[in-house]
Amino acid sequence: MNAPGAGPRLAHAPRESARLAPQHAPMLLRAALALLVLLALSGCAAPGKPAQAATHSTPAPPEGPPVVHVEVEAPTPLRALLERYLDLARLAGFARGEAVSDTELQRLVDTAPAQVRELLRTEGWFRPQVRIERIAAARAGLPETVRVHVEPGPRVRVLRVTLEAQGPLEEARLAGDAPAARLLHDLQSAWELPAGSVFRNEDWSSAKAATLARLRGAGYASATWAGTAAEVDDEQQRARLFLVADSGPLYRSGPIRIEGMQQQDEATVRELAGFAPGTPATEALLLDYQERLQKAGLFESVTVTLDPDPATAAAAPIQVQLRELPLQVYTVGLGISANTGPRASLEHAYRRVFGHAVSSNNLFELGRVRQAWNGEISTHPGERFSRWLLGGAIERLESSNDVVLSQRLRLGRSQDTRRLERLVFAEVERGARSTGSSRVWTSAVSGNVHLTWRHLDSVLLPTEGYTLALQGGVGRSHGSASRSGPFARAYARLTAYQPLGQAWYGQARIELGQVFLPAGVAAPESQLFRAGGDDSVRGYGYRTLGPIVDGVVGSGPVLMTGSVELARPFLARMPSLWGAVFVDAGRAGTAFGTLHPALGYGVGLRWRSPVGPLRLDLAYGQELRKIRLHFSVGIAF
Q1: What is the pLDDT of residues 370-393, one digit of tens each?
Q2: Could you give the maximum distance between any two Cα atoms of the chain, in Å?
Q3: Which of 86, 480, 605, 627 is the most buried (most CB within 10 A)?
Q4: What is the distance between the alpha carbons of residues 203 and 201, in angstroms, rounded to a whole number?
Q5: Cβ within 8 Å of residue 25, ≥6 positions away
């Protein structure tokens, strides 16, 4: 610790230094002697580690009464610290049943105040008052008592932080480089031990490590500390912190070296990089590249690293290590849900069709109320992470009042980035709805755009953030009971997640949709809306909330649903098991002005499993005045 008022002396500081106190040679000598006593008492084992025999057998715990009883009188957190690390307190545990001379005991008593001060300095107390009492045993056979009184006094707080840089980062900043100036400002703003905070050794080390990690993550991979110093004025309880980072060179991306490729094309891996040679090789750049490769659906594992050799910093090689997924995979699934009942599925994925950079996926599903096939063939991700795709679907869906059979064929192009998914496609579809003895069919041709934004802390198990899905399309339809004409469709769904305090979590959803139709023109069933069910309005059956025509529930051109849910873990030791309360409302209809939302509310159980959330809900439908169970669970093998 420098004398009060002394200025920083960084020019002579080592790369990692913290000047907290003057040297106390006599104190260190006494502490060393005390340590020798402890080593002798514990069989020459290191403190806290009992000696082991040559056979490495576990020694028996000390037996007999302690030779001394140590009482530490201090605030609770400090008492635990001193009882664990103070040599005098450790003596009581190590020297049971063994004699300790009065001279040896007095030596430990004499060194205790200095050791207490050193221990408390690590937690921010630099001027504690320490008093030691030796209390003779009440009668023969009982140990002597040593009482340690500690008044910690005020803690030292950070008065000022000076964080500077040298090397290429500082040179670029002085030359007017905006990114360099912004990086240094961000490092200073993100410093984890700011003015006003308690100065602790652990926090000081953690803050330095975090700042150096940020600097390296920003592209300065060989950055180190040129010097660090903490000047503490223990009379004023203030600390001044000085740090100088030697940035080293800014690493820029060079050649991409790929390992592990066997059957897929290296061109796909290179196109997914998304950056040109010479781009600053930041941690975010490498992680984004790695994430795109993982989402390509071609590789089982992906690792993207940077060669940290300063000699190649101007064009640092990017190392990509891959392990490919099998070319063909069959997946059989079984599941059950309150919406569609039990189901079985078979999925086939082929990741290189006929030896070309093309993937295909086919999913067959057989259930009590839904039977479907979905198929797609698409190119591997290319420029700007986009794919061409050709897909088709056939679905038969049975509701309480009707049966809908639909077929689709689409051709489009998709783009999948970290935050945004975009799909642009043209589609031909045909749908037929059967109610009793009547059957009406409608066909359509349309152009569509689907966008999905995600800003979530976890895509699989989100607790904070939002997702926004937007859909728009225009087309022309023709039906057996309607005239030909144009139509347009718009749809939006916003879901938000927000932690509420330390234990509660909130989730809210709003969903709106409308199909714009001229008089006498009908749209296919797949373009229209119905509400009700697990992910819509709980308390009502699947697709049972829609306009009623001739006593039969049908699909409508408008949709509005909303939901609010509060959840929290049941027990701290079972963080994956949550309880929830919720309120849902909504309906599909013919016009927003005549739409009267149905209300449902209830309680639920959530298991946040590694494969996604599994839900069990008990909901009361206010219109039906009945309780309905909603659940969703499935396994694949």
Answers
A1: 999 999 999 999 877 899 999 999
A2: 111
A3: 86
A4: 6
A5: none
Q: Which of 413, 365, 372 is nearest to 389 (CA)?
A: 413
φ/ψ region of 122 (left if φ > 0, alpha if ψ in -120 to 50, else beta) reads alpha
Q: By C-alpha distance, which of 329, 336, 337, 334 is closest to 345?
A: 334
**For the segment 260-283, what is each residue's pLDDT rounded down to a tens digit?**
999 999 999 999 998 999 999 999
Full domain range(s) for residue 626: 389-636
pLDDT at residue 38 tops 50: no
512 in the same domain as 632: yes
Mean pLDDT of 39-57: 38
Q: Which tokens in the block code for residue 401? A: 């009042």
* Residues 478 and 551 occupy one common structural domain: yes
| Position 62 pLDDT exceeds 70 | no
> Which tokens hold the place of 515?
């199909």
Amino acid at 508: A
Q: Which helix (H) or strand (E) holds 148?
A: strand 144-151
Say if residues 546 and 587 touch (Cβ distance below 8 Å): yes
Spatial separation of the C-alpha atoms in residues 332 and 329, rounded to whole Å: 10
What whole-number distance in Å separates Cα of residue 28 and Cα of residue 118?
11
Q: Would you list the DSSP string of 533-597? A: STTS-TTS-TT-BS-EETTEE--BSEEEEEEEEEEEEEETTEEEEEEEEEEEEEEEES-GGG---
Last residue of a domain, one of 268, 300, 324: 324
Q: 341 Cβ partners below 8 Å, 6+ apart?
A: 367, 368, 369
Residue type, 115: Q
The answer as to whether 93 is a domain residue is yes
Length of the chain as a residue count: 637
| CATH number of the CATH domain containing 169 | 3.10.20.310
Q: For residue range 521-578, what is the model confidence (pLDDT) as tens digits?
A: 999 888 999 999 989 999 999 889 999 887 788 899 999 999 999 999 988 888 899 9
Q: Both 259 and 194 in a single domain?
A: no
Asked if pLDDT for residue 88 goes beyond 90, the answer is no
d(CA 585, CA 509): 10
Q: Provide the token pair at 624.
A: 């039906």
Residue 590: burial class (beta carbons within 10 Å; 0-12, 13-18, 19+): middle
The answer to whether 272 and 381 are in contact (CB under 8 A) is yes
pTM of model > 0.85: no
User: How many CB atoms within 10 Å of residue 442?
Assistant: 24
Q: How far apart are CA 533 and CA 72, in angstroms?
A: 63
